[in-house]
């Protein structure tokens, strides 16, 4: 299986697992919390059918990647992504992030520029800035993130079950847009992630990406569910137009947070049209 080294802990290498399939324009898919690159299966199939080269990878601490005890912040996540981009020598590619993965996309371009990237896509975005502050009054109270981390420390598995149900609006869409077997499969992936990574990643969500977004000089597509319960649309997607000069923004009617699965047809149509 293919791995790339992104660092060391106690003299042992930290590796990220990735998959690289197809040919054509490279599209790098950056998964959301608390899953792995396998969560992109509906987008991977559509992109391969369109003749694209598709690269997925597992964030450190998740999926088949190594689980170090540190590095669960967006500076490190972006550095990991940069190592992968350089190792595969990707050029004129497209970065596609979902949820937490949109933070990697924003921080990567803000730190490493768009030299290797022609376009970017954000599904259920985390940017521009989720945490409340005096200069970010639209943000969410910090106590919510503290409560989530406390829930993870108390009973990580109960937290993950509830989080995944809320991400898919399972009380409304369960059995129709999302099967219960799929929810159980997602839980299995999430439960296998590092407890440290799960906890610390939530703390990272309060990162401020406004300076990163100001450095974007490429077209961006943002797609978000109207009924996103995890990343409130008024705090996230609706605010992107004030920070990106070349933005196409689409709202999926009735869509939850995890639109890549529940509304894959709509997401894939928007994604493929944007890539064309």
Automatic annotation (TrEMBL):
AB hydrolase-1 domain segment(s): 26-263
UniProt keyword terms in alphabetical order: Oxidoreductase, Peroxidase
Stored Pfam families: Abhydrolase_1
GO molecular function, one term: peroxidase activity
Claim: Oxidoreductase is one of the keywords in the record: yes
PANTHER family xref list: HYDROLASE, ALPHA/BETA FOLD FAMILY PROTEIN (PTHR43433), NON-HEME CHLOROPEROXIDASE-RELATED (PTHR43433:SF4)
Similarity-based family: Belongs to the AB hydrolase superfamily. Bacterial non-heme haloperoxidase / perhydrolase family.
Name by which UniProt lists this protein: Pimeloyl-ACP methyl ester carboxylesterase
